[in-house]
Amino acid sequence: MDHVNFFSEAYQENPYYYYQLMHEKMPLFFHEPTNSYVISLYDDVERAFKDPVFSSRNYEWQIAPLHGKTIIQMDGREHSAHRNLVVPAFRGRELMEQTLPAIQDSATSLLNTFKGRDVVELREEFTNLFPIQVIVRMLGLPGEDLSLFHRWYDNFARQFENLSNNKRTLQRALASRDEFRAYIDKVIDERADSTDRDLLSILCTASVDGVKMDKTQIMGFCGLLLQAGGETTDKALANLFRNLLQHPEQLALLQQDSSLLDRAVTESLRYSPPAHMILRVTNEKVKVTGGEIPANATVTCMIGAANRDKSKFENPDEFNILRKEIDTKTCYTGASNLSTFGFGRHFCVGAQLAKMEMQVATAYLLDYMEDLQFAAGHAPKETGIFTRYPESLQIRFKARSQQFVPVSNPVG
Predict the structure, then answer these.
(1) What distance in Å separates the CA atoms of residue 293 and residue 287, rounded to the nearest whole number?
(2) Using CA atoms, how far apart are residues 78 and 83, in angstroms rounded to an integer?
(3) What's the angle, vertex CA 135, arms to CA 131 and CA 139, rounded to 5?
(4) What are the pLDDT digits (tens) for 347-405?
(5) Which residues touch 402 (CB under 8 Å, ≥6 apart)?
(6) Sign of the torsion angle spanned by Cα atoms 187, 192, 197, 199
């Protein structure tokens, strides 16, 4: 039987081969380098998110050193209370009225930096910057501090992927944590009695079960938003444009029919989720397909593999924006049939935000650019274990106008 090692060159080059191997021959196995049990079938991964026998205690060492105890590692009443506090900012009218303008303005300002050019490095000059701009504006913070937030974000993201426990990566992330907390600490003091509707002011004045959130909780949520919210959109957007350019017939379908935008975004999130694995810890021993996992064991839930389970998706290794299993009305809610944003009580609170960011960014890029193709000699290489994305995405295009003015209205 083939051996699976996440850190091997062969695995990192093509994990998708190993996903099918896991499904067919080893739906449960122990991965010694990470000291974890690995599950990959859709039904097992879904259960790991929904069944309370699986805990999110792993975030005590994975996230807490950077952001303290945050909503993603809370359970029960505590989790519900904190989730209910922040959910309105990420859904419905609040999202449309408070955040959509920030998304549109951020995309427009970045596109106008492409003026007079026919080749851009899309990841470095757009996808890596765009969600950080949006988050800074959501928090009501000054745009001149974007470079600080971008540096902090990069260091947080690298630590989240630091499965090999590189000490230098950890030290940089901890230094960024301290800088970030010192910055946010001053802002919290300034907004203690604010009536503004930016997200940070809401957090500073809101209460959970009658008690205001303390500074540590507010800092933790803001740090988590910067890291998780930025990374999801950054890497998902880069993956989407790589997928479209690698499948020109799919790009042509989207260019001919803009109503397919939601389907293109959602299929890319299935085919190339920004995060390919999420960890859990068992509260007691539990049986899954292929065997039993002991109590207090770390479990690696293979999101990327679950999204390519052929028992759930026809021809799962094909990128197809017309895929019949895709329901864009439910894929950004707790009823989603994709594992990309999780399942159950820990379904990603920012899924609607990520969808809106990707809708606007994709529509605007296609409004501005025509004749899209990879730059001469450029072949984007997907990289990463925990998250996967093209580190570089050099695009050649023709600008439809000298100054970008939005044409599409992708968000109804």
Answers:
(1) 6
(2) 9
(3) 170
(4) 888 898 999 999 999 999 999 999 999 999 999 999 999 899 999 999 999 999 888 87
(5) 115, 116
(6) positive
Strands 36-39 and 298-301: parallel
Average pLDDT, the chain: 90
Q: Give buried/exposed letters for 66-105 (b at 16+ CB in 10 A, else e).
A: bbbbbbbbbeeeebeebbebbeebbbeeebeebbbebbbe
Closest CA to 138 of 103, 91, 88, 113: 103
Does 95 score more than 70 pLDDT? no
d(CA 389, CA 235): 6
Residues 6 or more apart from 167 whose CB is under 8 A from it?
Answer: none
Distance, CA of 229 to CA of 139 (rounded, Å): 12
β-sheet bridge partners, residue 212: 207
**Per residue in 277-312, pLDDT tens?**
999 999 999 999 999 999 999 999 999 999 999 999
* Residues in Cβ contact with 203 at an 8 Å cutoff, skipping those fewer than 6 apart: 85, 86, 213, 218, 221, 222
Give CA–CA dist 352/350, Å, rounded: 6
Q: Which residues contact 388 (CB under 8 A, 6 or more apart)?
A: 15, 235, 239, 272, 274, 276, 304, 382
DSSP H stretches of helix in 278-380: 303-306, 351-368
SS (H, E, C) 313-333: CCCCCCCCCCCCCCCCCCCCC
390: nearest Cα among 12, 123, 9, 6: 123
**Contact between 378 and 246 (Cβ < 8 Å):** no
* Mean pLDDT for the stretch of residues 309-334: 94
Longest pairwise C-alpha distance within the chain: 62
Question: 197 with 204: CB under 8 angstroms?
Answer: no
DSSP per-residue codes, 180-232: HHHHHHHHHHHTTT----SHHHHHHH-EETTEEPPHHHHHHHHHHIIIIIHHH
Q: Give the model confidence (pLDDT) of 256-270 as tens digits.
A: 999 999 999 999 999
Q: Exposed/middle/buried for 223, CB within 10 Å: 0-12, 13-18, 19+?
A: buried
Strand partners, 398: 370
